[in-house]
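User
Here is a favour to ask of a fellow structure person. I am asking you to supply a protein in sequence and structure-token form. Please set it down just below, with no commentary around it:

Assistant
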Amino acid sequence: MERFLSSWFVSSVALALAALLLGSHMSIGDADETTLNRVLALAIVGLVFTIVHLFVGQVVKLIALPFIVLTLGILLVVINALLLLLTEWITSAFGVEFGVDGFWWAFLAAIVISVCQSILSAIID
């Protein structure tokens, strides 16, 4: 449980940093909302992102393992971008404001999120 909460926190912070760096190409929450509502939206998006990575991501990565090895890991970024787009789709079904402007912005966001998660995980652990 502690590991899940840590992963949720790290994912939420990494998503916030990615949204900050990508500007209008990735948004979490509505800009007109209060800070509390935006933090709540970030927490929900972080939770969905963590759950998607925990369940869907592990299965997809296991199935794609030979191709991940052949592409020297570049396929991992593509998978993470697709998981980010899946998170966008799931959160929109719940009415949470989260958007990424297409696959290539999701690809760039996946790189930023991966780097941020690595750094934050190293600091927390």
